[in-house]
Amino acid sequence: MPPTALVTGSTAGIGAAFARALAAEGHDLVLVARDVTRLESVAAALRERHRVEVEVLPADLTDRAQSRLVEERLADPARPVDVLVNNAGIGLKGRFWETELADQERLLELNCAAVMRLTHAALRGMVPRGTGDVIVVSSTAGYAPGSRGPYAATKAWATAFAEAISGQV
Ligand SMILES: NC(=O)c1ccc[n+]([C@@H]2O[C@H](COP(=O)([O-])OP(=O)(O)OC[C@H]3O[C@@H](n4cnc5c(N)ncnc54)[C@H](OP(=O)(O)O)[C@@H]3O)[C@@H](O)[C@H]2O)c1
């Protein structure tokens, strides 16, 4: 049976590139993003080009109930996920105090809390199985938190989190 990879934010940019590369290597895919039409279109193109199975799992990862659906998919022992790519992430324009607090909360939720939740769900199965990979897409901005405001702070966390969990695994 081919391995399965779940990629968040897989309909554009870096996430779409991960999805194409993983499909080209023969992975079946679970694609996560909010826009269902775009998900279906990306999935159809990947099926056609790479002859792999592609599920679409629409979810806004800043919404706890929708995120839970992705966590449940990752934790499903009947359909193991071999590779998790935590890619979905956003930036914010403007200075911290001039932005809406709700936008800052969404930034933290997507770039940090969702990464923590999905990684937790994935490792609960991967570690006992003794196999699996988790990727956290961070940013060089995380090495220069003074340069990019709170976005950079979330990426400093993402890098530190990945290293912390890698040390434990
Ligand atoms: N672009 C860069 O130069 C750069 C540099 C360094 C690091 N990064 C990091 O790389 C990652 C991807 O960046 P990108 O620029 O390639 O992204 P992008 O082109 O803006 O694409 C974002 C993807 O995430 C999905 N998404 C956005 N909000 C979401 C949410 N709340 N829930 C679920 N999915 C969501 C989008 O689809 P929907 O809108 O349909 O949800 C889309 O598929 C991010 O973590 C970013 O911080 C980017």
What does this entry look like structurally?
There is one protein chain. With 169 residues, the protein is α/β, with parallel strands linked by helices. 52% of the residues lie in helices and 14% in strands. The protein has five helices and five strands. It has helices spanning 13-24, 36-50, 64-75, 101-129, 149-168, and strands spanning 4-8, 28-33, 54-58, 83-86, 133-136. It has a five-stranded parallel sheet with strand order 3-2-1-4-5, with helices on both faces. Helix 2 (36-50) links the parallel strand 2 (28-33) and strand 3. Helix 3 (64-75) packs parallel to helix 4 (101-129) and helix 4 (101-129) runs parallel beside helix 5. The longest helix has 29 residues, at 101-129. The mean pLDDT is 97. Bound molecules: NADP nicotinamide-adenine-dinucleotide phosphate.
Question: Helix count, per DSSP?
Answer: 5
Characterize the largest beta sheet: strand count, sense, and whether it forms a barrel.
5 strands, parallel
Class from secondary-structure proportions: alpha/beta
SSE pattern:
EHEHEHEHEH
Low-confidence spans? none
Q: Which kinds of small molecule does this entry bind, naming each only once? A: NADP nicotinamide-adenine-dinucleotide phosphate
Total beta strand runs: 5
State the shape: globular
Give the % helix.
40-55%
Cα(first) to Cα(last) distance is: 25 Å
